Amino acid sequence: MATSTDLDRVAIHDWGSHPCYPSDLRDLLAAADDAREYVVREADALDDCDAVVTLYHHDAFPDAVEWVHCVRSGYDDFPLDAYEDAGVLLTNSTGVAGDLVGESAIALLLSLAKGFHLYRDQQAAGEWARLPVERPFELGRSSVCVVGLGQLGESVASRANALGMTVTGVDVRPVSQLGLEAVHDVTDLEHAVADSRFVVLTTPLTPDTRGLVDADVLAAMRDDAYLVNVSRGEVVEEDALLAALEAGELAGAALDVFEAEPLPESSPLWERSDVVVTPHAAAQSSNHGEKLARLVETNATRLAAGREPWNRVV
């Protein structure tokens, strides 16, 4: 938007509770910004609103408001052509969850390395037993390949580097090495993952990354390697992952995202002791709403002044 935009009333779509309560976000924005009104609304009740903050796309949005802000970094479910044709600005929340997801990814690496998830299973069964002495291993003497070196990937890589891990990366564009041993092009993915104890997926979901981690990539990984996915479920071919786990071609996986969410009760992943399942919660934190509020308020102020917003998608 080249000219200033009147934003008298901004709606927060009533999306539920994740990653924060809409009512809490409204209160945080109201406290930070007295120039406009923030209200919680359903998708079909935006007639008196100028913008909407949302978790997901709704078909009503392009015809109802001038600006839509997605509280996720991923926007693969948003029909960009429809927004562009309607002249509606779309922004996302890239950068908000970087530190949160980075911490969660490292927590998953630590759990897999030390076997904490296995001890938790034993606790539920009231079982006192140490793992075999050769099972736990030192994270600081391990290697990790981070696939996708945007802000999420940078957050994981920097934390892994601080723990003494050997860190490599994969990306589609030239990036600074961030203290990494090497950065590979995505066309070299099978070679890139071949020597790493961990492969962490932080790439966004795009037509090019859908099914990126297939049977060939999984076969290229070490048989003592772990796959950690904190990006999008569709980046991994889930059937191929299950087949690799069943065949003992991987040591295990930690998955925060899945092809179908919630993960169906019938999924074999629930029953596997070599898999850690978390409910798409890597970015969840008590201060997530504060981070979102700062971004939304900043963009509202910039748009009202006729300035370019942060994280513009369309």
UniProtKB/TrEMBL annotation:
Source organism (scientific name): Halarchaeum rubridurum
Keywords of the record: NAD, Oxidoreductase
Gene3D superfamilies: NAD(P)-binding Rossmann-like Domain
GO molecular function annotation: (2R)-2-hydroxyacid dehydrogenase (NADP+) activity; NAD binding
Superkingdom of origin organism: Archaea
Annotated signal sequence range: none
All copies of domain D-isomer specific 2-hydroxyacid dehydrogenase NAD-binding, residue ranges: 106-282
E.C. designation(s): 1.1.1.272
Alphabetized InterPro entries for the sequence: D-isomer_DH_CS (IPR029753), D-isomer_DH_NAD-bd (IPR006140), NAD(P)-bd_dom_sf (IPR036291)
EC category name: oxidoreductase
Protein name according to UniProt: 2-hydroxyacid dehydrogenase
